[in-house]
Amino acid sequence: MAEQARQDAVYSRIVGNPVEESQFNGGTAFTLERRVAQEPEWVWQMLATPDGAGQWSPCVPLSGIAGVGPLEFRESPGQSAVEGAVTVFKPFERLDHAWGAERLSWRLSPADGYTDLRLVQTCSSEAAVLSSAAGWHVCLATLEALGDGDRAARVVGDDAVAHGWSALRSEYAEHFGLPV
To answer: pTM (2 decimals)?
Structure first.
């Protein structure tokens, strides 16, 4: 039953964040925004440390992010590392990095005890836009649940399909005006 509660904590936030709140920036870029019920320092730890990112993100740094420069990421412990690089490092405000061919820009803004979090991803191809947007939608739901103090299970890879990833991908296709 505890596992079901963890899944429900994530699922309720997946459906609570309509696809229509996202933006397609044209070409291969999109923007997702969420309000996290924690201060920017907490959100930063969840982005920039292996322990934090390992609770919700598919993009887990092998070591804590401490500045600009090369960095390796891994989705799961048994997988091969993916080369990346941090290009902008402003603690508690902005983190830009490459994760393989993907480019991610995280912006954090304090908001009365919360953090407004904005992800802008530039994908390696137009085909990657829908999969990435749907995947981050699921992952950000997990981050929100953790920020609310709920016990939430990390949902990445094949587990995302059970959380509505396929339907989200189709919804993003319609919203962004891209072919499925």
So the answer is: 0.94
